Structure formats: C-alpha cells, structure tokens
Amino acid sequence: MCRRILAMTLAFFLVGIPLPARPAGIPALGVVTQASAAHFNAARVSEGATVYDGDRLSTESEGLLQFRGTGSLLNLPGRSGVTLHRLRNGTQAHLRAGGLVFSSARASAMEILANDAFIRPAADVPTVAQVTLVGAKELQISARRAGVLLSP
C-alpha cells in the first residue's frame, strides 16, 4: 500500500515537468535570459527558454527580450522579430521586423541578416551595435562600440 501511494505521488509530480521540445543530441543555440511581452515561435516565452536553430523570437509593442548565445548577446526591443540560425562558430539573427542590439567579443559569434545585407563585428574585439529596419531597402546601423562590417 505504501509503495502504491509513493508511486502515485511521484507520478503526480512528474506530470508537471515539461518534456524537451527537441530530440536529444541537437545542440541549442542559446537561452532566453530576459523576456517581457515576448514570444517564442507562436507561444509566450519566459526566462530560461532554450532556443534552437530555426526558432523565431518576437516582441509586442511594449515588450523586450534578451537572448544569450555562444559568445554573443542579442536584445530585441518592442515590435521586433528575428529568426535564429546556427553558424559554424556562432549565431545568425535574421531580422524580420523592428530592430535589435547585439554584442559580441568575437567576429564569428554573431551575424545579422537584414534586408539582404549581412552585418557582423569587424574584428575579435568587444563590439556593440544596433540594427533597425527603416524600410524595405533601408537600414539604420549604429556601431556603439568597435566597428561592424556591412556586406550585401
């Protein structure tokens, strides 16, 4: 009788544990470290969510989201959206709406794709830059620390 109660109690607590969204062996791109009025694919996201290749992150008008990848940090302000992809040594963020701020200490750790242009740190030095979609063929790029490379 005691074993049956213990087994039922254990089963009850295990029901609330979420299962991994991806099969074992698929490496994660990073983790969401801050989220408010933000979405992960189609669902609300919270801190600690694991992000994989091809996942979409977005924010509502008053939202914000921070993603930490290998050697990089990405901030999305309100009304922004990206799709993240794995690169050989880092992460590519395909900016689909709004803007973002990224920081990286390695040139290969972060690449931004926006309006068919590629933006990345110019060298392996701490870099902070902001990229904003202004129009279908217009970007606003601000290098706040160190330089960035822009290539079509």
Write structural notes for this entry.
The chain is mainly β and 152 residues long. The chain has one domain (28-151). The protein is built from 1 helix and 13 strands. It has one helix spanning 2-15; strands at 30-40, 43-44, 50-51, 56-69, 72-76, 81-86, 91-97, 99-104, 110-114, 117-121, 127-135, 138-145, 148-151. Strands 1, 2, 3, 4, 5, 6, 7, 8, 9, 10, 11, 12 and 13 form a 13-stranded mixed beta sheet that branches. Strand 4 and strand 5 (72-76) form a beta hairpin. 28% of the residues are buried.
Features:
mainly beta, 13 strands, 152 residues, 13-stranded mixed beta sheet, globular, 55% strand
Lay out the secondary structure.
Elements: H1 2-15, E1 30-40, E2 43-44, E3 50-51, E4 56-69, E5 72-76, E6 81-86, E7 91-97, E8 99-104, E9 110-114, E10 117-121, E11 127-135, E12 138-145, E13 148-151
Parallel strand pairs: 7-9
Antiparallel strand pairs: 1-2, 1-3, 1-4, 4-5, 4-6, 5-8, 6-7, 8-11, 9-10, 10-13, 11-12
* Global shape: globular
Count of runs of 4 or more consecutive helical residues: 1
Helix-strand string: HEEEEEEEEEEEEE
Structural class: mainly beta
pLDDT averaged residue by residue:
88
Tell me the distance between the termini. 70 Å
Largest sheet: 13 strands, mixed
| Computed CA radius of gyration, to the nearest angstrom | 19 Å
Number of domains: 1
Instruction: Report the helical percentage.
Output: under 10%
Proportion of residues in β-strands: over 45%
* Number of separate strands: 13
> Which stretches are poorly predicted, pLDDT < 50 over at least 5 residues?
none
